[in-house]
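Task card 7
Instruction: Convert sequence to structure tokens.
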Amino acid sequence: MAGPTPASSVSAPRGEYDTLIDVDAEGVDLGETDLEFHDFHTGDNAQGKIPGGTRMYDAPSAIENDPNRPLSIWNIQFYAQFFDVETSDVLQRCLYAIYPKISFVETVGDNPDLYGPFWIASTVVLVLFFSSTLAGAIASHVAGVRYEYNFGLLSAAAALMFGYTFLVPVILWGVLKWYKSEHARLLECVSLYGYANTIWVPVSLVSISPIEIFNFPTISNVVRWVSAAIGFAVSTTFLVRNLYPVLNSTEAKTSRILLIAVVAGHMALAFVVKLVFFAYSIEDNEVND
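Output:
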């Protein structure tokens, strides 16, 4: 009776091969094969990682931090880029708006913002309401009549300043695009109009005109007209100086029409500020009483 096959030998199933190969024997030629042996026990595999450092997906933080990836309007970072300014930048731009000898566009460069225009418009709304209310209270006190607060002036100031700051430049930008202007940028137009409103803060404070306490309504009214005229002149100079290169990129006739429209629109703003918010006089209060 034959014993068990030795561990060093390999026997093929019956009927398929009739040879017995001793794999431990020297000089045995197994022939050429296409087998390749790989080492799967790498450091990465030992930790359960994909070999070669391959990443199946990009982490969300990597996608969000990719500067070449376009931002979606549903992403907060899309709007954050319009408010990327420091307080010192806003104050400097307000100064340039009041003292328009320096080119605002060259100073701002490629970083116009919406932070300044929003807060400037909000400040002007509050200052207009406060100054108008105080001026009316003074005029009523001098006339000896009871002053009634008109909170509708707050809504009027908000509609006027926010509408003028954000709606008018959008319309102007659309017209410039219609006439194939290559230099028109929406954010730049809104930024210009927003910072142009800086002058209305000191104009509103001056228009309180405490001179009226001494029963000089005519002088007070002159002071208000002069302050409104100065505000118009300063802000118009600021707008024209910085918008002229953009307006001039259209045809000559179109450029002149747009320039006149810009000046006329700003003049209308100055008249509304004076007549709606600072038209108080002692005589008017006596009549209305």
